[in-house]
């Protein structure tokens, strides 16, 4: 059976194969599969590919010939002469497909028209592949379409013939299917949001069996989570079964430790691992199947060295061992099994193809020797099947009905099918989904191991890692992960995803259930003395204003408060502000030291004041025995490059500092939280308790990204020149005391504002429209411009020499150029900061 894969968004749709398959109307011979792409990347960007029995073809003419030859029918002529004639027209159709030039096409069209003068069909008295080939090529040709529409310059016979073929029933069927495929993908959303409603073909209620086959050689990452959760989703949806199978075919890579950790990881995402299977349970059967292949001349033992084998496969050269006799192969395979000196030099290869365009079919290796003891079979085996053989065999033996694979395996699907077919195994449907990959994120086991081995992370559960334990530790909930993965659904668009949507989904999940707490940054925290306040006292207040089910917490009130330095810096004397969850107050006095650091504030309670009328809603903590110390952790990506390539040197891409610790004090209720609890520190963000306080060590909480730009931008990556510049300006501002940025968002830390400034796209905006008065830096620059303008005018009045005037004018221009850039930088900083401030809504 052949599958014709069509790139349904191709500029020139390959209509002929579609029509031919419809004309044969025999799924046992060929069927069409549509892919929602413009070209088939896996087949050298062809618009059509035929995959059958270990063969891949990508030219329309070869595909048409393959289909008609592999099936007895009357479309390919009744005699050698007519068949040859048909071939000639098939070749001609290929010229039409390639022709974008009116003149050369016109010559062909005139010839075709002439040929049809006394004929209804190109060859013989009925439709043949020649007609289908030419019709398909013409239909896809833009020049021809135009001529057909206008009737201009189009030969009458050719036009009549074209309409006649277009009216054939099989053409209508083929086109209808193409239209259906286009319609069904129209509803598919973006890559992050595939169709929610995902289905399997041939899925019967109660009979679907899926499987998740991790190799026990590492910790599971978010990509594995996608596979596991999709498999579970289908098993549940069809009331079937999910098999968790350890693919333990390589003793060199596996460690028992990993089996335990994978089971734990799966439990974390809600997958039952009380029953698991092992590929090693099937070693005896797989061995028997290998013997079958050898006996049928479909596998051979190869002694070719690895390097040479790679080169031969690359160049499509047959191995010198390819044609050994069955007896010799059986003998060699036994030597492999016995691990004799000679046996160890061999590997078993499936005899599929030497030079198929699909390299996965070039005689893949299916058994290899390995002397290491196996965790479960000990020393029984000295050779092990490879994944490519073991997977289809065990899938079939275990009753798997639907095998989910990422599209990275697309090229290996024909190989999988070859094993099923040639071993007479039960068929398994392959369902492809797109591999998950994220910006600034490493997924490769090798690279992650490097970070662990170098001690650059705290372990496999580091919050910066994309491992399941890492992301859960960072505060992602299981529910959010599941929702996100099902949102992507069946999308097979392979792209690198931003992290924002995932964290935004998470925020939606946690916001309604995260109790509200308060923290004040320890560095330069400000003592605020409040007159009119009662003595220190505790009150019960709800943990979450909109979710009573979360119960109450204690809030301490008193005459002495602690507040964030960043907030106090913005206060003005006699300003009315709101102390959140308390009431209004007037600021009566602000003390600053020589560096401008606020060292004390006096306020007067004004509880009658209307909180709707104040601009600043401030968080505070009453000084007293309730307060607890906490460490607030925030993280950056481990690497500074969005998309890492295989050849990238990790060492060049490391983010210099990717862990940030802020010491803070928090309300006393925080002391009662447990590890894993998720809360919100008002106006700061969502946090997950990573460690409770022990002895003198304060509790540690990790900031959970909320999906907003500032929380997911790389804080270190110098992405573009503008962004670099913004960051530099932001830094300068910060060193100077950040008057402008902080005005808009007092509680946002410099690091965050900086990251936000990276992300805020700058637009030319030459006059200040930001909040509050012009920042002093701009005022200063404007003054300089005015002064320089005066100077230029003066020089001109004085008729100074040309060079001198030019120099002054250049200086003036350069100052003028700086103005919009500075304004822009400050504005984007302020805008980003105020956006970030919005996220800490009251
Ligand atoms: C296919 O197209 C992509 C994108 O245009 C290109 O990067 C790639 O090299 C092409 N592959 C082949 C085999 O031509
Ligand atoms: C499939 O390939 C096998 C081995 O190459 C060959 O014997 C068989 O005839 C092929 N079948 C078809 C339908 O081409
Ligand atoms: C048509 O174009 C394709 C790709 O551009 C090329 O591979 C093929 O050889 C061309 N065929 C003919 C007949 O010119
Ligand atoms: C493999 O080992 C078995 C059992 O020791 C022995 O009978 C057989 O002759 C060996 N075969 C080869 C080819 O070495």
From TrEMBL:
Biased composition (Low complexity): 738-766
Catalysed reactions, semicolon-separated: tRNA(Glu) + L-glutamate + ATP = L-glutamyl-tRNA(Glu) + AMP + diphosphate
UniProt similarity note: Belongs to the class-I aminoacyl-tRNA synthetase family. Glutamate--tRNA ligase type 2 subfamily.
Coiled coil: none
Start and end residues of each WHEP-TRS domain: 777-833
Gene Ontology cellular-component terms listed: aminoacyl-tRNA synthetase multienzyme complex; cytoplasmic stress granule; cytosol; methionyl glutamyl tRNA synthetase complex
Class in the EC hierarchy, top level: ligase
Xref: SUPFAM superfamilies: GST C-terminal domain-like, Nucleotidylyl transferase, Ribosomal protein L25-like, S15/NS1 RNA-binding domain
Protein name (Swiss-Prot/TrEMBL): Probable glutamate--tRNA ligase, cytoplasmic
Any one GO biological process: glutamyl-tRNA aminoacylation
Domain of life assignment: Eukaryota
Keywords carried by this UniProt record: Aminoacyl-tRNA synthetase, ATP-binding, Cytoplasm, Ligase, Nucleotide-binding, Phosphoprotein, Protein biosynthesis, RNA-binding
Subcellular location, principal: cytoplasm
Annotated EC: 6.1.1.17
Classification via InterPro entries: aa-tRNA-synth_I_CS, Gln/Glu-tRNA_Ligase, Glu-tRNA-synth_arc/euk, Glu/Gln-tRNA-synth, Glu/Gln-tRNA-synth_Ib_cat-dom, Glu/Gln-tRNA-synth_Ib_codon-bd, Glu_tRNA_lig_a-bdl, Glutathione-S-Trfase_C_sf
Keyword NAD in annotation: no
Location(s) in or outside the cell: Cytoplasm
Keyword set includes ATP-binding: yes
């Amino acid at each position: 059976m052949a599958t014709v894969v069509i790139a349904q968004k191709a500029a020139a749709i390959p209509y002929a194969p579609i029509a031919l398959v419809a004309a044969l109307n025999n799924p046992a011979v060929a069927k069409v599969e549509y892919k929602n792409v413009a070209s088939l990347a896996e087949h050298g960007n062809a618009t059509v590919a035929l995959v059958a029995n270990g063969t891949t073809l990508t030219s329309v003419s070869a595909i048409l010939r393959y289909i008609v030859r592999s099936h007895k029918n009357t479309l390919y002529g009744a005699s050698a002469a007519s068949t040859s004639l048909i071939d000639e027209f098939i070749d001609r159709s290929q010229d039409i497909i390639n022709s974008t030039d009116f003149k050369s096409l016109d010559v062909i069209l005139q010839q075709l028209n002439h040929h049809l003068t006394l004929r209804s069909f190109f060859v013989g008295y009925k439709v043949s592949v020649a007609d289908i080939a030419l019709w398909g090529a013409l239909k896809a040709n833009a020049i021809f379409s135009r001529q057909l529409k206008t009737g201009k310059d189009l030969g009458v016979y050719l036009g009549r013939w074209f309409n006649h073929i277009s009216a054939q029933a099989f053409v209508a069927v083929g086109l209808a299917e193409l239209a259906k495929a286009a319609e069904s993908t129209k509803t598919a959303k973006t890559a992050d949001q595939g169709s929610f409603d995902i289905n399997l073909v041939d899925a019967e209620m109660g009979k679907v069996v899926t499987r998740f086959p991790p190799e026990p050689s590492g910790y599971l990452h978010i990509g594995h989570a996608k596979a596991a959760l999709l498999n579970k989703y289908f098993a549940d949806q069809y009331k079937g079964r999910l098999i968790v199978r350890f693919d333990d075919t390589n003793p060199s890579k596996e460690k028992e430790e990993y089996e335990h950790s994978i089971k734990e990881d799966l439990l974390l995402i809600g997958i039952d691992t009380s029953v698991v299977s092992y590929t090693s349970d099937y070693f005896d059967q797989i061995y028997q199947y290998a013997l079958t292949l050898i006996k049928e001349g479909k596998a051979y033992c190869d002694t070719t060295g690895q390097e040479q084998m790679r080169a031969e496969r690359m160049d499509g050269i047959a191995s010198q061992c390819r044609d050994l006799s069955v007896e010799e192969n059986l003998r060699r395979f036994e030597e492999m099994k016995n691990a004799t000196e000679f046996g160890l030099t061999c590997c078993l290869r499936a005899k599929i193809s030497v030079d198929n365009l699909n390299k996965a079919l070039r005689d893949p290796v299916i058994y290899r020797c390995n002397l290491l003891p196996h965790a479960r079979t000990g020393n029984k085996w000295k050779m092990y099947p490879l994944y490519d053989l073991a997977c289809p065999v065990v899938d079939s033996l275990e009753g798997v009905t639907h095998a989910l694979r990422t599209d990275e395996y697309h090229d290996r699907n024909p190989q999988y099918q070859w094993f099923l077919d040639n071993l007479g195994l039960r068929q398994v449907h392959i369902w492809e989904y797109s591999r998950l990959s994220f910006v600034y994120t490493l997924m490769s086991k090798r690279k992650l191991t490097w970070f662990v081995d170098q001690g650059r992370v705290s372990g496999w559960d580091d919050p910066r890692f994309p491992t399941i334990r890492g992301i859960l530790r960072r505060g992602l909930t299981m529910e959010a992960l599941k929702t996100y993965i099902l949102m992507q659904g069946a999308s097979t668009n392979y792209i690198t995803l931003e992290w924002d949507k995932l964290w935004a989904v998470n925020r939606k999940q946690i916001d309604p259930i995260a109790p509200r707490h308060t923290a004040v940054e320890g560095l330069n925290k400000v003592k605020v003395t409040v007159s009119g306040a009662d003595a220190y006292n505790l009150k019960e207040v709800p943990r979450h204003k909109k979710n009573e089910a979360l119960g109450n917490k204690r809030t301490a009130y008193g005459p002495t408060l602690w507040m964030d330095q960043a907030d106090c810096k913005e206060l003005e004397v006699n300003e009315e502000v709101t102390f959140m969850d308390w009431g209004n107050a007037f600021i009566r006095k602000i003390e600053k030291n020589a560096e401008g650091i606020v060292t004390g504030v006096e306020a007067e309670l004004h509880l009658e004041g209307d909180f709707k009328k104040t601009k600043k809603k401030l968080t505070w903590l009453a000084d007293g025995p309730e307060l607890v110390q906490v460490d607030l952790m925030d993280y950056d990506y481990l690497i500074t490059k969005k998309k890492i390539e295989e050849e990238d040197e990790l060492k060049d891409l490391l983010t210099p500092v990717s862990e940030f610790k802020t010491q803070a004090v928090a309300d006393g209720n925080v002391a009662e939280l447990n590890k894993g609890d998720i809360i919100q520190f008002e106006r700061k963000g969502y946090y997950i308790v990573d460690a409770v306080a022990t002895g003198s060590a304060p509790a540690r909480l990790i900031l959970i990204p909320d999906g907003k730009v500032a929380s997911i931008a790389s804080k270190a990556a110098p992405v573009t020149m503008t962004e670099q510049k913004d960051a530099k300006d932001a830094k300068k501002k910060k060193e100077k005391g950040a008057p402008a940025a902080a005005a808009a968002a007092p509680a946002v830390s410099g690091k965050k504002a900086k990251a936000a400034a990276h992300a805020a796209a700058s637009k030319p905006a030459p006059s200040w429209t930001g909040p509050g008065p012009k920042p002093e830096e701009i005022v200063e620059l404007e003054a300089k411009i005015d002064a320089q303008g005066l100077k230029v005018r003066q020089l001109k009045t004085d008729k100074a020499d040309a060079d001198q005037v030019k120099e002054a004018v250049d200086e003036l221009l350069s100052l003028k150029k700086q103005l919009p850039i500075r304004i822009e930088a400050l504005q984007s900083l302020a805008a980003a900061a105020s956006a970030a401030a919005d996220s800490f809504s009251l």
